[in-house]
Amino acid sequence: MKQYWDEHYEKFRIIEPSKFARFVQQFLEMYETVLDLGCGNGRDSQFFYNLDTVSEVRGCDSSSKALDLCDDHIDKFYLDVTKDTKLLINLLKRSSIIYCRFLLHALPPKNQISLLHTICESINMYTKVFIECRSETYEYIDYTYSEHERYLVNATLITNIFNSYGITNITDVQKNRAIFKNEDPPIIWSVGIKQ
Ligand SMILES: C[S@@+](CC[C@H](N)C(=O)[O-])C[C@H]1O[C@@H](n2cnc3c(N)ncnc32)[C@H](O)[C@@H]1O
Questions:
Q1: Would you say the CB of residue 6 lies under 6 angstroms from ligand 1?
Q2: Which residue CA neighbors atom 18 of ligand 1 most closely?
Q3: Which residues contact 23 (CB under 8 A, 6 or more apart)?
Q4: pLDDT digits over 142-159, tens only?
Q5: Nearest to 90, CA basis, from 81, 103, 102
Q6: Global pTM value
Q7: How far, in Å, is the centroid of ligand 1 from the Cα of 109?
Q8: pLDDT grade for 141, boundaries at 50, 70 and 90
Q9: What is the secondary structure of 125-138 as a DSSP string?
Q10: How far, in Å, is the centroid of ligand 1 from the Cα of 128?
Q11: Which domains does the chain have, with CATH numbers?
Q12: CB 39 near ligand 1, within 6 Å
């Protein structure tokens, strides 16, 4: 799968921030330290870096090709969230904002669960967590054109794990959040705060 992402970033050139990053902007206070988990080419990391409310941005990804595309202002970490737990925990503890866009559905369910638990266990009080990912759906979506496996996420999984750690959250599923080519898939947005 790592090879898939390396090849993907040889062609992927979108640098505009995502709709989710623009949505997240309103929740940021002064001197935020942002951790962008699965940052890809850093399109959203760069957006956060340019905000007055943000003092530091760390981006991590398991594709070195993706990290090579990130701007030098971003503190870059080569990190596989399923393997490098020690580094992951260290970065989580040092960040006031955990941002995770379109990483969760790239991970098999057991890794999704384990990542969510690690985030919840490791973050400090008042840390905010923002997750965007593709939702399970009753509609048929044909993914056969892609070699990229997607493990669609159940929104209740996120809510239940967040709730079990006292992370107050609003988690919902809607369309018209991440239209891609001719697809308008149902997308989960989750905003949580540990308190
Ligand atoms: C769909 S891209 C999203 C990139 C970026 N967040 C964005 O919104 O443009 C998914 C990213 O997750 C990364 N990724 C996949 N599995 C990973 C893992 N186990 N650990 C860290 N990053 C991973 C990929 O390399 C890729 O950059």
A1: no
A2: 80
A3: 189
A4: 555 455 678 999 999 999
A5: 81
A6: 0.95
A7: 15
A8: low
A9: TT-EEEEEEEBP-S
A10: 20
A11: 2-9+31-194 (3.40.50.150)
A12: yes
